[in-house]
Amino acid sequence: MNKKTTEGENPLSRFIYETGEILPLDVNYLPEKFLVECENNCNETPENKIKGLNEIKKLLEADKVTKGIQFEDDFLRQYLRHTKYEAAPAFGKLRNFTHLRTNYNYLYLGVHTEYTVIPSTKYSTVLPQRCPDGSLLFLLQLGKWNPNEMPFEDFARITFLIAIQALRHPLTQIAGMTFYR
Fold first, then answer.
1. pLDDT at 5 over 50
2. In what order do the strands lie in the sheet with 136-140?
3. What is the pLDDT of residues 127-177, one digit of tens each?
4. H/E element, 160
5. Neighbours of 119 (CB within 10 A)
6. Is 114 helix (H, G, I), strand (E, B) or coil?
7. InterPro entries under this entry (predicted)?
8. Are strands 136-140 and 124-130 parallel, antiparallel or unpaired?
9. Separation CA 98–CA 127 (nearest Å)
10. Residue 180, SS3 per DSSP
């Protein structure tokens, strides 16, 4: 398997071929190298996970805007990972999220089922495999979108919902997303 890369060959394809390190989209565990990366880059330890969740829940409950809202632990954890388990900055980002939801609530509304059959609305795809770095592959073909068949508000809503749902996955929180267009 140690063949030379020929001219014009994609080095990423060669890497995948040689190492076999490609993960499916829906991984139901975190591979060891990503657990180590999460500990090193996100300061995620068992102690910090408990401490961070407890601190951010206290901040959320004490805030007049977020008081009474039940946030799932995995949802809170994505903000804690982003801020290296520092509760105060994670809380600020969650406040921004709640403001977004209040001020742009149309982004969170359902999507018309008719969009599943209109060809010009099939402009985005989450691919079934991940990059070798673990990132999610998101293919955007914006030339397929026809604003006469789907208004911009619906286009923005669908794209936003796909991205926000993808970020619920722990591996995507750690490794990120790769966008191709």
1. no
2. 124-130, 136-140, 177-180
3. 998 988 889 998 889 999 999 988 898 888 888 888 888 998 999 999 999
4. helix 152-166
5. 9
6. helix
7. CRAL-TRIO_dom_sf, CRAL/TRIO_N_dom_sf
8. antiparallel
9. 29
10. strand
Whole-model pTM above 0.85? no
Pairing of β 177-180 and β 124-130: unpaired
| 26 vs 112: CA distance, rounded Å | 25
pLDDT higher than 60, residue 93? yes
Helices (H), 27-106: 32-42, 46-62, 73-82, 87-103
The pLDDT of 60-88, averaged and rounded, is 95
Provide the greatest CA pair distance for the chain.
Answer: 62
**Which one, of 165, 163, 161, lies nearest residue 177 by Cα?**
163
